[in-house]
Design goal:
Number of strands: 12
CATH topology of the largest domain: Rossmann fold
Helix content: 25-40%
Distance between the termini: 23 Å
Radius of gyration: 21 Å
Number of helices: 13
Order of helices and strands: EHEHHEHEHEHEEHEEHEHEHEHHH
Strand order of the largest sheet: 2-1-3-4-5-6
CATH class of the largest domain: Alpha Beta
Number of domains: 2
Length: 383
Amino acid sequence: MLRCIPLFKRSTEHPIRLLCFPCLNEENASARHRIYKYIQFIDPSIISFHIVPPTGIFFFRRLFLRGKIRRHYLYFIIVFLSRFAAIWSSTRYDAVLLQRDIITEFFYDPPLFIFALRLLNKRIIYDVDDAMWIFPPHSIRGGSLSLNILTRLRFYWNVRLSKIVIVSNEYLAEYVKKINRSVVVIPTPVSIGDFPVREHKNRETVVIGWTGGGGNLVYLKLLEKSLASLASKYPIKMRIISSRPVKMNGVDVEFIQWDKVTEAKHIATFDIGIMPLFDNPYTRGKGGFKILEYMAAGLPSLASPVGINARIIKNGENGFIAKDEKEWEDTLLMLIRNEVIRSDIGIKAREFVSGNYDYSVWVPYFVRAIEQGCGRTARRSKT
C-alpha cells in the first residue's frame, strides 16, 4: 500500500475521531478519492477514520444496480436504517464528514437527516465535488421541476448547517459562499505512483481513450462525427473504461469493464486521453479528475474548455483544449500523426500533476480542513 512521508508528528492527545458518510462504497470514484484514499496518507494518530457507506458492495450491486424497483425500495430501507444508526452514534465523534448526500442523490428525500445529524453533532464538514444543487440537463431528472427544487433545498441545508464546506473547484466555491462563507477548495487528488507511464511509440493503431461513469458516456456523442472521420483515414481505436459499453458509428470501440484495481493500468494503454463536455451550469462544476488521471499516466489530454478543464490544461504545454468540432479533429489528427508530441506533452503533464495534484500536495490542506471543522489542531512536523 502506497503511503506518503508522514506529514505530522504524533500527538499525546487522542486522534481526531472522524465519522465519514461517503456517498457510496469504495467502488465509487468520488467516494474513493475524496474519503477512502486519504486513509493511506494520514497517520491514524492524527485522524482516526470511521467510514460508514450507505450499504456494503454486495447490497449495492444486488439491490440497486439490478434496476428492479422492488429491489430499489429494499435498498433504500437498508440505507435509511444504516444512516439512522450512524447518525445516532455521531455524538461519539469529534466531527462528521458528509460527502455529497446523507442518503444518496438517487433518492429524493427532504433534508430531514441533516437536521437530525445537526442536533446530535454540530461539527459537520460537508464535501462537494459536483454542482449538487442541479441535475445534469441531459438526464431524465434534469427535466423535473419538483426534483430540481427538492435537490436545491437539500443542498442548501447541507451547506447551511455545516461548520465548513470542502469543494473541488472555484466554481463550486463561489456558489457555496452565497450560503456559507466557511469554504476551502481541495481538488480531487491523484496518487501518481498508482499509474504506469505510457511509452509513446510510432504505433500501427493509435488508441484514443476515455474513462468515466456510465451516466457520462453521453458526452462522447459530441465527438462521434469527428472520430468517424478520422477512423476512415487512420488506424485508430476508441478504448472506453466504464460500467457499460457504448456504440459509436464508424468507430472501432473497445469496451473495458471498469474496476478500481485495474483502471490505472488500463488508462496507461491509451495514447491520447479525451474529456469532451457540454457547456452548462452543471458541467462547469466538474472537477476534471479524468484529465488528471490521463496526465498521471503520461498522456496528452484533449478536453473541452469547460469549468476547471481550462485551468488544469495549459493549451499546448501540458495538454490541449478544443472549443469546436474542427479543433477537436485537427488536434486529434496532429496527435495521431506525431508520437514525439504525444511523448513531450505526456512528460510535462505527469510533472504537472506530480507537483500540483498528487495526494502529497493536498493531504496537509485536508487535515487542516478537518481540524477547522472540529476545532482541533494537530502537531505538524517541521521536516
